[in-house]
Amino acid sequence: MKKFVSESLNEYGPIPWSGKDPTKARVIGTIITKEMDLGDYHLTSVTMEVVEIIGDIYICNTWYKPGVPQVIHDDMVKEFIPK
Q1: What are the tens digits of pLDDT across the range 23-41?
Q2: How many structural domains does the chain have?
């Protein structure tokens, strides 16, 4: 898995969904994330809906924080199911 997802995002420039509302966008598919151990933490698998794919970055239809959509790097994705 890449050490810093932000390095990968910089390859594509600013996230096009920044400031927009991804919760109102058309869903193009679903991802299932991998279970991962990060140091002392265990991350369970989750399912998220995707509104856009930019290179190896999935833009989800949820907020990470106000004005910033949730992004998931391809290294964290177990499966993508197109709609």
Answers
A1: 888 999 999 999 999 889 8
A2: 1
